[in-house]
Amino acid sequence: MAQEIPNIEDMGFPFPQAQPNFELLGALPKNVKRRVCALKKVQLASIDVEAKFYERVHALELEFEALFKPLNEQRKQIVTGEKEPTDAECDVPLLHDTQPDVIDQLYEKSEADSNEKGIKDFWLNVLKGHDLTSDLIQEHDTPILTYLTDITTSTSVDPASFTIKFHFAENPYFKNSVLQKEYFLEIIPQEDSKFDFDGPNVIRVTGDKIEWEDGKNVTKKAVKKKQKKGANAGKFMTKTVKADSFFNFFDPPKSADETNEDEDAETILIAMIRA
Amino acid sequence: MAQEIPNIEDMGFPFPQAQPNFELLGALPKNVKRRVCALKKVQLASIDVEAKFYERVHALELEFEALFKPLNEQRKQIVTGEKEPTDAECDVPLLHDTQPDVIDQLYEKSEADSNEKGIKDFWLNVLKGHDLTSDLIQEHDTPILTYLTDITTSTSVDPASFTIKFHFAENPYFKNSVLQKEYFLEIIPQEDSKFDFDGPNVIRVTGDKIEWEDGKNVTKKAVKKKQKKGANAGKFMTKTVKADSFFNFFDPPKSADETNEDEDAETILIAMIRA
To answer: Which GO terms describe its cellular component (chains A, B) (predicted)?
Structure first.
């Protein structure tokens, strides 16, 4: 969610992220430099107020979670087929901003009613259809994601974090019924990095360990490698390496410092945080 | 200010901005299409909750404006020289994250103390130093911006808007003491565009008319044009056309529909809104 009010504090002096203009700053008379220091002290106080603002917005997220919850529960019941919607619950067009005749054509194309409950492969299609996630899904991920029954989020205030939970039906691929990823936030900046403050910062991301059934782990693949040296020089040895998979999303870099082994997961992580 | 929690609602179905997958949707059995309609109705209810969230954030902006105000007032007093800061108000380093010896060098480079009050050309240098505004400033704008004494913002709830005010000392260029630009927001989406809702939307932008002193209007320039046809064919006629200037910032497109004559102003407008 993007808050639309421009943050005039960012236009203060000195600017976060901006290179200080040494020439300009050096030339300033000492009595003017004093005033610049005073401005910096005011800026520090402004940053404290800004951080408090973000604390309040985070609390607001928690408050609204309760309002979204029943709606998301309804969504889940419709998707999984726990509940068949009443006519009154369906009285909106299949597509918005669409000519009735186009919608009619869509109904003509309908396959015969099936006895299947809910909406088959709903979340698989959501992830395939969303540009943040579509590129992450490999062919070997698709059959697994057909077991995805719901995606939920939750917000925590202490510690400040938000969590994305992927709920799965019982399946032959892994034992987990929920795979979750938690983003821990630093809302109040550290004393020594206040001038870099630009809103809450993701300081740590954790993902659930997937308990794969034997031979079902799509995030690893075996490769044959010719040994260069040692006793086995020239021999081919089998080595297990990381494979592209949507499920690497749950194996994020342990810290911001750690070099990221999974560009895809990092891309979506940042994209989702900045969304 | 960016709100950091990813909006899982955006991952609902159908996606805002996403092209509906006609093939996928058409093939769905009629009883499944019914359930998709039910999901859309749930999605509409979610969007209403989301809009309420943004209303609350906007109200929070207004609440925090009162907390920023005294700090911005202090900043103004230091910048304009209305107030000379006490030693206690200056006890922070001239530059953060900087080695003391580098700071010492900056002090060595200091010119002799001047009798000038405050910090000369502070806001001119802020605007020159900020990448959102530096490109807008033309050579003929610089002397005018030396009279800029403060930049303030204000938020309004009814109608929802925010305003940027540029305060100027008495100057030989224009009569206005304040030039302001107001951004009007649509926080609650219209019924027919709910599925496109992605947070508050700037629906109208207004800027103050600058009362230029005679011959001082830097946003206009006279060009000589050879007449192609008519009685004056072949003669050179003087024509007044729009000139590049920072002050075009206050002459935004009247509506989103209107073709934008000032790419620069449009760029900064959007950049500031999305900031």
So the answer is: nucleus
The residue of chain A with its CA nearest to that of B17 is A130
Q: Closest Cα of chain B to A198: distance in Å? A: 8
Residue B257: per-residue pLDDT: 53
**B112–A49: do the CB atoms touch at under 8 Å?**
no
CB of B152 less than 8 A from some CB of A: yes
Residue numbers of chain B with a pLDDT score lower than 70:
1-19, 255-275
Q: How far from each other are the two terminal CA atoms of chain B, in whole angstroms? A: 7
Distance CA B99, CA A48 (A): 24
Segment-wise mean pLDDT, segments of 10 residues, chain A, 275 residues: 38 46 88 96 96 96 96 97 96 90 93 92 93 93 98 94 97 98 95 90 95 96 85 84 95 64 46 42
What's this model's pTM, rounded to 2 decimal places?
Answer: 0.82
Amino acid at B138: Q
Q: Give the Cα separation of B188 and B200 in Å (integer).
A: 7
Above pLDDT 70, what percent of chain B?
85
CA–CA gap between residue A199 and residue A148 (Å, rounded): 33
Distance between CA B137 and CA B219 in Å, rounded?
12
Q: How far is CA B179 from the centre of its chain?
A: 13
Q: How far is B215 from chain A (nearest CA, A)?
A: 31
Domains parsed from chain A with CATH numbers: 8-90+118-227+234-274 (3.30.1120.90)
Nearest-angstrom CA–CA distance, A94 and B34: 8
Do A178 and A101 meet the contact criterion of CB atoms below 8 Å apart? no
Among B179, B177, B186, B175, residue whose Cα is nearest residue B165: B179
The label of the residue with tokens 């940042």 reads: A270
